């Protein structure tokens, strides 16, 4: 794969795929960026390209528009924030044709942003020919392609993978840094290698576990996904998050872990409540004694201590998914304590997952080796899957 330094960008129009998919909220003059973490993460590559005299057309998606323009998913507030961070105005081109005209008038170091690429349904089409048609149109706007949206490199999409086949391409600095970290984790993690999994996207993440069991020494499971495991062991889980149709699969994981000698740990105690909200009655119960009608919303103190003791011995820790409903104060302790233990680990510590990264920011936890900007992409990388956006860069012109 080429590196960014190998592209001769001076005076040329560079199409830059970033992941500017930031959460918005209502501000005084319409929508405003609520959290600019992803936008900030994209700045280094843009500044580096500007410093080298590139003329930049940023491409990004925002949210999940239904296949046409929707004002609430416009990139305008994002481009405004990006402009503030870059110290330059970033105009938005409403469509590819306008982007082409604007791009032809750019000076070295200028930046424009194409409106939300997912306003065009071809971007995410399952039909390769349809996606390629959009990619070919995009390729008329610029001469080079830089892929810097790590959050989307695991997607087969026109502005992620198809375009890289049409223009000389390279990864941006953010994608390069992510690839370096996750390649190291996949190929040569220092041991003991501990993975901590949690969160609520249970079925998505269950798919990863089978593969992880081939690589890791310890797998610590908390958050919403723990209850499917507890159920697979025959425990009642009350009204906790449960994927009943995954129980058989999870039983298979428990058996595989045993065969391979992987230390798979589940919560031994949980904080339960009768409702999914703060302010109600809570209690700490043993994980095999969740009362009917109560739901587990955090790992308990004995589990925290158990997980901390494993993490303290680790040389490599990867964390994906909060240990509890950290957004509600009563259920935040597991996530905060486990997060702090991971950050304090003397080995390599990596966080993946949007909500996990948000928890790290909310609790002000510092000291991780790397906080990834891509949850899904980082998990697929660790599974050893080929990521379409990276494969396309390897095979690029
Ligand atoms: P990430 O974005 O880090 O990959 P997920 O999206 O999978 O994480 O899950 C994050 C969400 O999981 C958080 O909003 C959190 O409230 C929720 N969660 C964690 N533990 C539980 C639980 N026990 N029950 C229900 N939801 C939970
Ligand atoms: Mg999430």
Helix content: 25-40%
Number of domains: 2
Sheet/helix structural class? alpha/beta
Count of helical stretches: 14
Overall pLDDT metric: 96
Q: Which terms summarize this structure?
A:
single chain, 397 residues, alpha/beta, Rossmann fold, 6-stranded parallel sheet, 14 helices, elongated, binds adenosine-5'-diphosphate
What does this structure look like?
This protein has 397 residues and is an alpha/beta fold. The protein has 2 domains: 4-174, Rossmann fold (3-Layer(aba) Sandwich), CATH 3.40.50.1260; 183-382, Phosphoglycerate kinase, N-terminal domain (Rossmann fold). It has 14 helices and 17 strands. The chain has helices at residues 37-51, 76-86, 96-104, 128-139, 158-162, 173-187, 202-212, 226-232, 247-260, 301-312, 333-344, 354-363, 375-383, 388-394, and strands at 13-17, 24-27, 30-33, 55-59, 92-93, 111-114, 144-147, 169-171, 193-197, 218-221, 263-265, 269-273, 282-286, 295-299, 316-320, 348-352, 370-371. The protein has a 6-stranded parallel β-sheet with strand order 5-6-4-1-7-8. It is elongated. Bound molecules: adenosine-5'-diphosphate and magnesium ion. Magnesium ion binds next to helix 12.
């Amino acid at each position: 794969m080429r590196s960014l330094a190998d592209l001769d960008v001076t005076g040329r129009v560079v199409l830059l795929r970033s992941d500017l998919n930031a959460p918005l909220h209502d501000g005084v003059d319409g929508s405003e960026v609520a959290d600019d973490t992803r936008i900030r993460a994209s700045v280094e590559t843009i500044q580096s390209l500007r410093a080298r005299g590139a003329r930049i057309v940023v491409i990004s998606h925002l949210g999940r528009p239904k296949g046409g323009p929707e004002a609430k998913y416009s990139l305008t507030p994002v481009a405004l924030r990006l402009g503030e961070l870059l110290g330059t105005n970033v105009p938005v081109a409403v469509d590819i044709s306008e982007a082409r005209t604007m791009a032809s008038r750019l000076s070295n170091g200028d930046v424009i942003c194409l409106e939300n690429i997912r306003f065009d349904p071809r971007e995410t089409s399952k039909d390769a020919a349809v996606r390629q048609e959009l990619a070919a149109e995009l390729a008329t706007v610029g001469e080079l392609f830089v892929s810097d949206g790590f959050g989307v490199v695991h997607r087969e999409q026109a502005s992620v993978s198809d375009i890289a086949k049409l223009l000389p391409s390279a990864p941006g600095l953010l994608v390069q840094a992510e690839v370096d970290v996750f390649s190291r984790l996949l190929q040569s993690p220092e041991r003991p290698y501990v993975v901590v999994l949690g969160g609520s996207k249970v079925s998505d993440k269950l798919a990863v576990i089978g593969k992880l069991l081939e690589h890791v020494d310890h797998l610590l499971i908390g958050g919403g996904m723990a209850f499917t495991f507890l159920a697979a062991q025959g425990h009642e889980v009350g009204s906790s998050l449960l994927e009943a149709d995954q129980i058989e699969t999870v039983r298979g994981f428990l058996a595989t872990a045993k065969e391979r000698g992987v230390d798979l740990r589940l919560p031994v105690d949980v904080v339960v409540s009768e409702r999914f909200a703060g302010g109600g009655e809570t209690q700490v119960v043993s994980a095999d004694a969740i009362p009917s009608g109560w739901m587990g919303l955090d790992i308990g103190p004995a589990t925290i201590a158990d997980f901390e003791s494993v993490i303290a011995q680790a040389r490599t820790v990867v964390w994906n998914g909060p240990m509890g409903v950290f957004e509600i104060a009563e259920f935040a302790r597991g996530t905060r304590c486990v997060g702090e233990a991971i950050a304090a680990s003397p080995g390599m510590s990596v966080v993946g997952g949007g909500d996990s990264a948000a928890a790290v920011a909310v609790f002000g936890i510092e000291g991780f080796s790397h906080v990834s900007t891509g949850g899904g992409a980082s998990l697929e990388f660790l599974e050893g899957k080929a990521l379409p956006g990276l494969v396309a860069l390897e095979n690029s012109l």
